[in-house]
Amino acid sequence: xxxxxxxxxxxxxxxxxxxxxxxxxxxxxxxxxxxxxxxxxxxxxxxxxxxxxxxxxxxxxxxxxxxxxxxxxxxxxxxxxxxxxxxxxxxxxxxxxxxxxxxxxxxxxxxxxxxxxxxxxxxxxxxxxxxxxxxxxxxxxxxxxxxxxxxxxxxxxxxxxxxxxxxxxxxxxxxxxxxxxxxxxxxxxxxxxxxxxxxxxxxxxxxxxxxxxxxxxxxxxxxx
Length: 224
Fold this sequence. Notes:
Blueprint: H1 3-8, E1 12-16, E2 25-31, E3 35-36, E4 43-44, E5 51-64, E6 67-79, E7 84-91, E8 94-97, E9 106-107, E10 111-116, E11 123-124, H2 163-174, E12 184-188, E13 194-196, H3 197-219
Parallel strand pairs: 1-10, 2-13
Antiparallel strand pairs: 1-12, 2-5, 3-4, 5-6, 6-7, 7-8, 9-10, 10-11
């Protein structure tokens, strides 16, 4: 893994000033030919002759304000000449363009400036777009924790949940609910967080186990 190259094109993330959760790992894959993403349900055709590689940043948090475990993505399209051709960023199971039409949020020529939805972490290139989300404020407050331990996507079948586990996760996350300030501060990914996707995939179930143990201790829950 070429950390210098990965760092050169890494997005600059912007988090709400009241954000309680930050990335703990970033699984990186460099795609150099047509094929599927290893970490989410996407396939890349490589039909632009200018394209050298797509850098996939699978950004992992231990928590979303509504559930345990969070994975969002940023894809940076790099040309043979080193130019950023495009960027895309995930948004609750879907994705949007990560660059504004005028590329005004491309900083230093290689870093897409992306805003993270408070508590939920989906990405947008302009924070004003978050105001289009109907539950922008309620998700981080009265609806905190309501999805318990999330099981989805690349971790289907890797671990499981039950009503008691979901209950204590919700109980814990309700203690962290907050009101977004909608003022954002820059966050740059520390290179020490980068691992391969295979390493991250193996680590996630262990992190979930550890977080559940901490939650049981904090809440007096009994879920196994």
